[in-house]
Amino acid sequence: MPRIPESQLVLHHDGSVYHLRLKPHQLAQSVILVGDPQRVQKISGFFDRIEHEVANREIITHTGTFKGKRITALSTGMGTDNIDIVLNELDALVNIDLETRMTKPTHTSLNLVRLGTSGALQADIPVGDSFVAGEQALGLDGLLYFYEQAAQVIDHKMTSAFTTHAQWPGNLPSPYVVAASEKLLNHIAAGYRRGITATSPGFYGPQGRALRLALAFKAMNHNMESFDYNGHKITNFEMESSALYGLSRLLGHEALTICVIIANRVTEKFSDQYQPFMEKLILNTLDRLVSLPA
After folding, report:
1. Residues 6+ apart with CB under 8 A from 231
2. Is 18 exposed, middle or buried (0-12, 13-18, 19+ CB in 10 A)?
3. 135 Cα distance to chain centroid
4. CB-based contact 235:193 (threshold 8 Å)
5. pLDDT in tens, 36-60
6. What is the extent of the structural domain holding 44?
7. 224 SS3 class
8. 130 and 1 belong to one structural domain
9. Is 70 a member of any domain?
10. Secondary structure of 29-70 in the HEC alphabet?
11. Where does the chain show beta strands of DSSP type E?
12. Is the pTM above the cut of 0.90?
């Protein structure tokens, strides 16, 4: 493999990766990803001890131990563009020798669990104490298509079925479906509702919200709610999972998203009193990561 140029693998003068400001020894193999930077401290507040605290822009990282297991909590900020940065730099920390700029001969796989908030797309999903794990991520963002090997990890049959059912307009980014890690899904999300998590490139128009701007694709949410692929339905909307799943599969990592449902787009209910439920999800995830098989 050739040496990676400085303009492509960008490092700080201290040897840390550019956006995360992390060095390899500051990262654990199991990583909890959150969008909200303030949520990192909520997670590390349960740690036995914190080894490293690093902050750069919206990306905050705390690495420490929980019940003796080393874990990293890291905020990505919002959107698949941020996930593209975070995933590539996390992979670089474990699979590229940052001094020689060469790919390491032995691959390291990370366990990446994203905990977020989300809006439900099925009327029977309650707001509040409801955790939904994404068995698949439906990308409406187009990001994965910028990578040559994207076709290797996309579920083409489900993608085609959705595109046809939703009558997806040709002037919008092409959808794609990628599966979650079976290992993480079966262990970390045991007992939770499962479904297809839709990933949008925005919060308003791209999720069917209209304030002062009219929607170009008014039937989008209705068509998504009614989609059923061999019993798999689209359960919720968020903004990160498709890139997380797609890039993780391409780079050889395990990835899963679990969301607390704070709104229901069908019943139009919303609650901002979700913090106790997020805390419960954080503790469940930490406990299950401790017992995660190697």
Report:
1. none
2. middle
3. 12
4. yes
5. 999 999 999 999 999 999 999 999 9
6. 1-108
7. helix
8. no
9. yes
10. CEEEEECCCHHHHHHHCCCCEEEEEEEECCEEEEEEEECCEE
11. 30-34, 49-56, 59-66, 69-75, 96-97, 102-103, 111-120, 131-139, 176-179, 193-199, 228-229, 232-238, 254-264, 269-270
12. yes
